[in-house]
Amino acid sequence: MDAVSGLLDWFQASGGFLDKSHVGFTVFPDCGRGAVALQDIPEGHILFKIPRDLLLSTETSALPGHVGLARWREEKMHVGWVGLILCMMWETAQGPRSKWSKYLESLPATFDTPMFWSALELEELKGTSVVEKLGKADAEREFREKLLPMVQSHPDLFPPDTIPVHYTLEIYHVMGSRILSRSFDVEKDDPEDETEGEEAGNTSLGSAMDVDAPQEDAESIHSGASEHAGQDEDAEEEAEEEESSGVSMVPLADMLNARYGSENAKLYYEKDDLRMVSTKSIKAGEQIWNTYGDLPNAELLRRYGHVDMLALPNGDLGNPGDVVEIPADLAVAALHMADSPITRERIDWWLEQGGDDVVVLESDLEVPLALVALIRLLRLTTDEWEKAVAKDKVPKPKLDDTVLTVVRAVLEHRLKEYPSSLDDDVVLLRDESLPLNKRQAVIVRVGEKRILTSAIQKIAAQQSDAQSSRKRKMQPQEGAETGRTSKTRRR
Ligand SMILES: C[S@@+](CC[C@H](N)C(=O)[O-])C[C@H]1O[C@@H](n2cnc3c(N)ncnc32)[C@H](O)[C@@H]1O
Predict the structure, then answer these.
(1) Per-residue pLDDT tens for 41-62?
(2) For a pocket test of ligand 1, which of 31, 107, 185 has the largest count of ligand atoms closer than 8 A to its C-beta?
(3) CATH code of residue 229
(4) What CATH number does residue 411 fall under?
């Protein structure tokens, strides 16, 4: 725990407050370092406070000022995470001269996240959405096209002999992963905002983890993190609007682990500091958990490198937050429609109307309404389609038997995207010698396949009920016959 005690000394010497009588830090066997209650903690208790100037961001690092703020923006260093990554590299290169050297030393330098997996390991994630979301190629493009030119054109700030030591692609990925797994999106301290103390600013947006508004009016907004990777031209233009300067590394707050449904502490912001506050009473000896937004295992693995395994209501082990992402294109395939200009036109219109290109099936197994609306749109006759466009109206998500049959076909197609069967994967998980990355990949697939399989079974049951009821309606009704018979008899 040397790294932690050094970090705590630095934290307190730099103006941070830690309630040492209530909060300790230790290593948990299955989640690494984390916080523990040293005595019973009531709800609403301040566990620690981080002065805003201890946050590490493009606002607090001196680097953007040294480069020149105009140049920084011209080179688009304020878009995405590349600017913060460069600040973290530069602060590390400053060694003990950096205010954050003790903090940076304490951060992990290796990760279990799929960003660092081999091609063979990534194969295990086939069928899940993890691989396409990694954005490794786009991240590396940012490194080559934005970060390196900036570094090479400022030998005063980045001496050439330090480039192979501190500004490599490998370190770039490590810094990106530190941000992905540990940053917070912190609302700027707005000098225009005249309100005092607790009324500071607006609610922050979500980054790796959320920071909430001041406790009284705390209202959490979960929004996607503006990740450094995967930004195409359009997204980049949008991102320009969305400045990334609030994305901050927050010492100590990033030492808390999280598990589905276990949150008992949360980070709030005030005008001058951020505060980790208990959101429930916590018993002595219990872990102090933050929340990462109760994410599905696919996202936990991609961002944090771990998965959640809890007892589910049906007795299985898994993550209640698991979901299956279904590309809208699968509806086209399930309807046996050709990938023609006509089909493309409808899909493009769907997207223009605000429809998503991916629909999400959750563990409640409810058929996603967006999928129903999309299927109905694709099935419109030419006349109906033209009317829908003229009225600017996407069909209502009415689920009838025909649409249900297509939904089932979509889910069956989706299930086939995984190379192995659910049963095979369940057997695989019994093998205790399975390497960690493979085990986590199998856990992700199993969670998703269980949802798909159960949803298909549920639809099959609905279809067979509907079929039986149709048969009953078509057959002469027994009651009526009996009635006639009895009438006849009576006669
Ligand atoms: C914000 S940091 C928390 C502190 C971290 N445990 C450490 O040792 O520095 C997030 C990282 O903690 C680990 N972690 C958090 N919650 C976990 C959990 N429920 N199970 C396993 N690992 C977890 C993951 O490695 C994740 O990337």
Answers:
(1) 999 999 999 999 999 999 999 9
(2) 31
(3) 3.90.1410.10
(4) 3.90.1420.10
Are 333 and 428 in a shared domain? yes
Give distance in angstroms: CA of 466 to centre of ligand 1: 48
Give per-residue pLDDT as tens, 419-435: 999 999 999 999 999 99
Assigned domain for 316 exists: no
Give residue 369's pLDDT band: very low, low, confident or very high (50, 70, 90). Answer: very high
pLDDT at 250: 97
The response to whether residue 34 sits with its C-beta less than 6 Å from ligand 1 reads yes
ipTM of the complex, rounded to two decimals: 1.00
Which residue has the least CA distance to atom 27 on ligand 1?
Answer: 304
Domain extent for 450: 323-474
* CA end-to-end distance (rounded Å), the chain: 96
